[in-house]
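Appendix B, example 12.
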Amino acid sequence: MTGQAKAGRPFKLFRNLNSKIASIPMILTAMVIFLGGTIWTVVYSFTNSKLLPRLNFVGIEQYQRLWAAPRWVVSIENLAIYGILSLIFSLVIGFMLAALMDQKIRFENTFRTIFLYPFALSFIVTGLVWQWILNPEFGVQAVVRSLGWTSFSFDPLYTSEIVIYGVLIAALWQGTGLVMCLMLAGLRGIDEDIWKAARVDGIPMWRTYLFVIIPMMRPVFITTLVIIASGIVKVYDLVVAQTSGGPGISSEVPAKYVYDYMFQAQNLGQGFAASTMMLVTVAIIIIPWAYLEFGGGRKRG
């Protein structure tokens, strides 16, 4: 029996041979462009490259300059605030909307389309739209004041202390619909017998969601977290469209820092160092996810 299994193993390599051959260009592209580009960026982050890349190594000098720069520190603080709140509110609002949709409400398809539509827009369009909405001269503040509340003040994009929250509002408006759809797909995959058993046992709906449904949707939550987190790390165009990093540097984010140093300040070494730190952040997100999804699953099996 063992001999037959061993004899059959080589033939597995030839299964779906055409599809494997067709995937070779994609694999080579990923290896050469993505992996090669990543290694190239990390190597040149230890140089003092300016307008053009050059192998003049200066050790960790670029990283020391990076973490000594107030602009970079502000961008990291903004990313932390934006990221934590974006994760929390996206998951909570998205799950609540999905739970409401799962009640088989009337015009469900219409509401689902309305909530998902903002995700079809580019971040540039979303940023410009919310720049107009939050403009104190003709946006929310102006509308409320025209109704009689003349002391009402709401101009987050022009207040350095809260400008990142104005960016967060626009991001939630665009991304929550996608989270809702992912959560709704997970809820629709729950066996109806579980709901029937909960009703028979007299378990309140909120307890059923909290202790039964949500634990069963663990893979959906993990996947959603990775999608949200990867978008958080590379947030750029939304900030550029809304604030251009202002007022001052109060809404700076790491991706904008990288772009400005590489293409405007012509300091490739500093830009490479900043992008490498972003790569480390992505790795911190991806590695635990890969372990939970693959390594942890094999261990449990």
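Residues 70-300 form a domain with the MetI-like fold fold (CATH 1.10.3720.10). The two ends are 24 Å apart (CA to CA).
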